[in-house]
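Board notes, transcribed. Complex of a protein with flavin mononucleotide.
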Amino acid sequence: MKKIILIVLAMFLVFSGAEAQKKKTGKTVSNKVTVDGKTTSDILVTESRLLPPPEIGLDIPLHAVLKNRQTVRKFREEEIPMEMLSSLLWSAYGYNRPEEQKRVVPSAVNCQEYDIYVFTRDGAFLYNAEKNTLDMVVPGDNRAIISQQKFFAIAPVSIVMVANYDRMTMFKEEATRDFYAATDCGYISQDIYLYCSAAELATVACGGIDREAIHKLLHIKNGRAMLAHPVGMK
Ligand SMILES: Cc1cc2nc3c(=O)[nH]c(=O)nc-3n(C[C@H](O)[C@H](O)[C@H](O)COP(=O)(O)O)c2cc1C
């Protein structure tokens, strides 16, 4: 009998805690969300938006794409089409061999440690390549907190690459882990540059970002925001 009373009491406490949390955020809370089968940091997904399929067949010679690759820091405020955003994200971090869970970009020991966040006027989203969705983790316009560089507040989209160290425990030394995280980031950044070159979009790789503010906003506890790419129409 005592046992039953204790179980009922425990159930009541769990239920009332969840309800209180729900009232605070207005949304059901789900911790330890998994994206692409990998656990992210404790984060709340409040809304999931399906992206259009990425248009994989951009018919531009590689030579032309490489020739036009450049940094552009002037952005128009208008939104980029969702088809373009979907293709851009696929180029940066999508699966090109989904049956093997392997991506367009390589990663050291295939640890696939990056979480790709997309900041827009609507909110901050986590890119889920498996479902081809943008999962909202912070509502509202937080583009300007990424960096003091003014163009972040103007570009309609900014991609923030966060190395999730929970997926890099195979590297026992910090220096080795950091070396591979930085190297892997370079591939993602270059693919963003190459897609933007092909689609005639403006972008700039930025290391000058406010990591403290980003980590706080996104609840990054064991990881590092490495680079950010504002993207927009030229
Ligand atoms: C790792 C890295 C960090 C960078 N950080 C910034 C930055 O914070 N702000 C900026 O305006 N440009 C930044 N850039 C862009 C470089 O200034 C730019 O690539 C360089 O001037 C060469 O120009 P290009 O990309 O047109 O060849 C960065 C580039 C790299 C690769």
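The chain has a mean pLDDT of 87. The longest strand covers residues 223-233.
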